[in-house]
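User: I'm preparing a small set of examples for a lab meeting where we compare how different chains pack in three dimensions. I only have the primary sequence for this one, and I'd like the structure in token form so I can line it up with the others. Please keep the answer compact; I'll paste it straight into my notes.
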Amino acid sequence: MTTLIDNSPVQIANTKPTLVGLTLDELKVKMGEIGVPEKMHKMRATQLFRWIYHYGITDFEAITDINKELRQKLAQNFTLERAEVLERLISKDGTRKWLIRTAPGIEIEIVYIPDVARSGALCVSSQVGCTLNCSFCHTGTQVLVRNLTAQEIIMQLMIARDDLGEWPTPFEDRQITNIVFMGMGEPLYNLDNVASAIEVISNGEGIAIGRRRITVSTSGIVPEMDRLGQLGVMLAVSLHACNDELRDILVPINKKYNLEALFKAIRAYPDLSNSKRVTFEYVMLEGVNDSPKDAQDLLRLLKGIPAKVNLIPFNPWPGSIYKCSDRIHTKAFSEFIFNAGISAPIRRTRGQDILAACGQLRSESKKTKASILKKENI
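Assistant: Understood. Below is the structure token output for the 378-residue chain.
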């Protein structure tokens, strides 16, 4: 049975801006705003960065290497509050899901999946809603509200670590060892903010999750893939079909960047090797993309690419027209790929009972016209 931890909103009454989620450069600017001498901007910002992201403090008084006067000035002008947590859920399999609100009309879902990778993976969102309209994906039925800021992306990890009690940053026995940009939205349509968030998350003085443990998933925004490669993170590609005709239906961005263009960009991704493989996500849809011919076509596309294929059982959602491939077809597909020398595990569905599984994330945020967002400064 699903466990509901806390379904009541955590109110954030303070109107002062929070420093949580800011980059080191942004913290330097904040020091100037409160009168810290310019020659001390870097030092004070670096101290704050470590207290926020290594220790996870929620009170400026916890800082021991900044004088009382400056601590008081910080408290007068800023807070260390997180976003508003609207809902916390735990699945029967231990998966956790949070629904948070960062601004009026801006709601985000975050998912923590235990017992994957070295320990556990946090699935974060990069947009509220999505523009890609992948036909099998529940998130794609929610229209795009806007891109998330770097601060809002980092805030997702901060909230998860608060609830998991991972402060100060542990270097052994972590619960969150991996970050996957596989939540709501297309990360490469928001790459500036995603890159800034990765800069903070990977910084060794704070959260310290290495870039090889950060995976960014794209449906194939070809012009941004080279830039993503310069960040040193792992690449995942939402593939789901091995010919343009079918992929145009399942992943409509394929009409703009077809398989030929996509795989040219994949082959050019920096430093590909057996230790830095591309992960290909492939949702198993009954009678749609699960035939032996589809498996053969997949091998043809992957030839020469250090690759891993995640076979994802389709997770149903209200109104979906698809069914999940049965176990026999899925296992046969997996074995065919394995026998060709490419890892093709069948992903275990997690958090399905709380709609936290792959393709099921969808907040209740509504589309807001750009003019209103600009007017309200959201």
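A couple of notes for your slides: The chain has eleven helices and twelve strands. The longest strand covers residues 106-116.

User: Perfect, thanks.
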